[in-house]
């Protein structure tokens, strides 16, 4: 298992050790002790899975404290551009975004800490995305930022006019007006 730092503190990409043989492959997608060896000590309590068609864009979402969530995101099928935006007011990278291609093929995982907004776009025909969370879903604590906020200028790898976006996500505020409490 390998950990890649990003330019944003605490936001890391994890690559598993994959064992291939004539049957196919095997890897540990999560191991509490191996993650602890990498300095990651998180108690995950909920696993989520979503399936989306090409052109779907979900996000950018977060839950405010005390219900903030760390998310460990991976792709079971397909390819996504996974995006995290730093919302920590005292962070030197506040308002900056990081994007990474996650796919069933590259098996990379993005560890999105508490204090970030998260979203992804689907660039393959379909994609199944799975993520672990260290806090339960709480509707009242939900917050979001509009995916096309010009101050974030995120490259979602698609024509945004064609993006498939939920009604809820179409009316989210830009970062300067969001209700983030981080
Ligand atoms: C996120 C979530 C949603 N739901 C319900 C609420 C709603 O009726 C339905 C669909 O919810 P949403 O439209 O919010 O799903 P979605 O837009 O996929 O929301 C997700 O987006 C990605 C980018 C994230 O980072 C996640 O944390 C989550 O916010 O599922 C739960 O029951 N539990 C959950 O944990």
UniProtKB/TrEMBL annotation:
EC number: 5.1.3.13
Keyword Isomerase: yes
Catalytic reaction(s) noted: dTDP-4-dehydro-6-deoxy-alpha-D-glucose = dTDP-4-dehydro-beta-L-rhamnose
Top enzyme class: isomerase
Keywords: Isomerase
Molecular-function GO term, any one: dTDP-4-dehydrorhamnose 3,5-epimerase activity
Pathway given in the UniProt record: Carbohydrate biosynthesis; dTDP-L-rhamnose biosynthesis
InterPro entries: RmlC-like, RmlC-like_jellyroll, RmlC_Cupin_sf
Keyword Isomerase: yes
Superkingdom in the source lineage: Bacteria
Role noted for this protein: Catalyzes the epimerization of the C3' and C5'positions of dTDP-6-deoxy-D-xylo-4-hexulose, forming dTDP-6-deoxy-L-lyxo-4-hexulose.
Subunit field text: Homodimer.
Family recorded in the similarity comment: Belongs to the dTDP-4-dehydrorhamnose 3,5-epimerase family.
Protein name, UniProt field: dTDP-4-dehydrorhamnose 3,5-epimerase
Species, as recorded: Flavobacterium psychroterrae
């Amino acid at each position: 298992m390998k950990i890649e730092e990003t330019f944003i503190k605490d936001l890391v990409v994890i690559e598993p050790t994959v064992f291939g043989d004539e049957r196919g492959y095997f890897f540990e997608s999560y191991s509490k002790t191996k993650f602890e060896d990498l300095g990651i000590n998180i108690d995950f309590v909920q696993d989520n899975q979503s399936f989306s068609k090409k052109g779907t864009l979900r996000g950018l979402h977060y839950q405010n404290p005390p219900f903030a969530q760390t998310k460990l995101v991976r792709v079971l099928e397909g390819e996504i551009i996974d995006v995290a935006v730093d919302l920590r007011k005292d962070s030197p990278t506040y308002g900056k975004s990081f994007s990474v291609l996650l796919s069933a093929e590259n098996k990379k995982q993005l560890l999105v800490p508490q204090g970030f907004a998260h979203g992804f776009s689907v660039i393959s025909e379909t994609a199944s995305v799975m993520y672990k969370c260290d806090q339960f879903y709480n509707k009242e604590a939900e917050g979001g930022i509009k995916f096309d906020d010009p101050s974030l200028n995120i490259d979602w790898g698609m024509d945004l006019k064609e993006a498939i976006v939920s009604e809820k996500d179409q009316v989210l505020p830009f970062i300067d007006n969001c209700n983030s409490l981080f």
